[in-house]
Amino acid sequence: QVQLVESGGGLVQGGGSLRLSCTASGSGFSIRHMGWYHQAPGKQRELVARIITGGSTNYADSVKGRFTISRDNAENTVYLQMNRLKPEDTGVYYCHGRFRGSSWWDEFDYWGQGTQVTVSS
Predict the structure, then answer these.
(1) CA distance 51 to 102
(2) DSSP letter string, 85-116
(3) What pLDDT shows up at residue 105?
(4) Residues of the chain where predicted confidence (pLDDT) is lower than 70
(5) How many Cβ atoms sit within 10 Å of the Cβ of residue 120?
(6) Residues 49-82: pLDDT tens digits?
(7) CA–CA separation, 46 vs 77, rounded Å?
(8) Where are the beta strands (DSSP E) in the chain?
């Protein structure tokens, strides 16, 4: 069983910055990859950024150059530094993780509860 706990959302003016964090807790797992998804009001959830074991990252085109994903392996924590925020970045940000259990085929996904980000114009 894995729990993902997020923090760091809030209200910010356009052009401002926020930092989200997500910590995975539990036992008997290793992390395959972790990332952040954005769900704008009335829209589907979309991948924002992901960091894979080994350190490689990928980003949605809309956030390249503005957002940075990083991780602290010792703390099982992933961060999303969001700079130059725009009103269209408003929505709920969900942490996602893919984990591996005791066997290589035993992979499973978990989601955080979501954290609200609101960017005013």
Answers:
(1) 22
(2) --GGG-EEEEEEEEEE-SSTT-EEEEE---EE
(3) 86
(4) none
(5) 11
(6) 999 988 899 999 999 999 999 999 999 999 999 9
(7) 21
(8) 2-7, 10-13, 18-26, 30-39, 45-52, 57-59, 67-72, 77-82, 91-100, 107-111, 115-120
